[in-house]
Structures
1.
Amino acid sequence: MRRRTTGIALATTTLLLALTGCDAAGDKAGDIVSSATAAVASAAEEKMNEVKDGVNAGADVSAGPTSADGDRTVATITATNPKDKNADYTIMVDFRDGDGNLLDAVVLNIDGVEPGKSKTGTARSNRTLSGTPKAEIAQALRH
């Protein structure tokens, strides 16, 4: 009986170690993805900071629904120029999952939008995104 109990205990310990190892590997993979996402968001913010003489134009810009384009997620972004001269727009678009978690961030330029007119551009994710992400305007600058 002792040999059988020892065998069961050993098998249980091995299973727990294997499961813990899987959890640790999953946690490590999640940490790597989170770090990569944070790095992409930081790079996008740096691009936004490079815009000179830009004014907040969040009200001028909207994001359409997302769709798949090959292995990437895309969304149509629309900039509407309310001013009386041509304007260029630099827009940071966040792709978020259903829980609001940041999956990716991209910077898009829409140039030469005429006064009182709208013009569109396509925000394209940097990598494959799972689920049905939503595109959100994180920041928009008119210049």
2.
Amino acid sequence: MADHQEASVTLPSDPLSVAAARRYVAEVLSSWGLPEDADTADTVRLIVSELATNSVQHTFGQSPTFTVDMRLEREEWLRVGVTDSHPRWPRRLPAAVQQDNGRGMVIIRWLAAEAGGRLSVSPTEDGGKTVWIALPWQPVGAPAAGAARGC
């Protein structure tokens, strides 16, 4: 496998695009050798679902598209980012608001940390942002992060 691999897709900012983003990520991960039923694949699909949903719901029509970028760096780190052109960065909502929604970033941060990764946000040149997750790459046949700890 190459030292560095990349894949990217831009989709309309529409609720139907969330499933398309999830399918795209699953296909890329599979082509990079990660089985569909691997824990890391499940985690990445869920995180991308949450990030894409946030992009669609919280840009208030001000970002007509969102982009999913994937990078496999030296077969050590998988980085996945969702970019939109809305200037507002994600934030945790007050507890009272979190009754019915507002948990997406909490879920994403927890999933990334549980898999040994991290979450970050970076600005784009057009005034938008990319929300990134970075996860250790789980090669085929390696135990999942939780399994290694006996969880």
